[in-house]
Amino acid sequence: MPKRDDQAMVASWLEDHGDYLFRFALSRLGGDTEQARDMVQETLLAAWKGWEGFGGRSALRTWLVGILKHKITDHIRQQIRNRQLHEDVERDPTSDWFGADGHWQEAPKAWRASPESLFESTDFQRVLQRCLDALPALQREVFVLREMGGEDSGSICKSCDITATHLHVLMHRARMALRSCLDFNWFGRKAG
Amino acid sequence: MYSCRQASRILSDAIERRLSPMEWLNLRLHLTICGMCRNYAHNIRTLETVLLRLRDQATDSAQALSASDRALILRNIEAIAGDADTGPSAP
Q: What is the ipTM of this complex?
């Protein structure tokens, strides 16, 4: 049973850093609040267990974020294993958009809406989220880490156990798929 | 000369890494003559800008753990920590 002091210590970490850790996890997990909450919990638990190894060499928050990053990486690796996510490596989905001669099957039309007006539309945000959710899982994990989490390529390659070239391929496929999904579900086929 | 298929890949790579001078030149040349890829470039730039705004918003947002989430976390930690009767130790 943790001593009363320990409980107070963990409670104070939660108080001071809980929201920060929660937001950090949320942005890297594509807005999954339940998962983000569990990550905060696991981080605090690991911090409590490893407290004696901390030694105050860095700021407490930096240390906690370091633990959280490991937890997120583990989670993503697990997801990739569970869902056999390497399925999309075998077939190039961008083939669907191009003919054998490398030309567009269907010519992309320029979106007229400004980024600002799209950003301010909650309806658009909902459609965007749906399109993100529809991506093959590894593409989605990588794209969300990169674009929503702002992670650098190096750490994503490590987390997901992929090469830089593979990362570029996944980002390209995700952009292709999102552009097409948004075209279909938001801008409409006639959107000029 | 790039095909549209190659150009679309290089357009995405341009967001991810520094292009070689040759890649950059080939891409420029292709975009000069290809309106479809210019449209594609325009659209993924728009997408990037929206995503960046969303990221900034998420960082600044007041999104926080609810009181019940906090209580749940503390309860769970207490339960798990209670099971492991060893108490704190170095990892």
A: 0.77
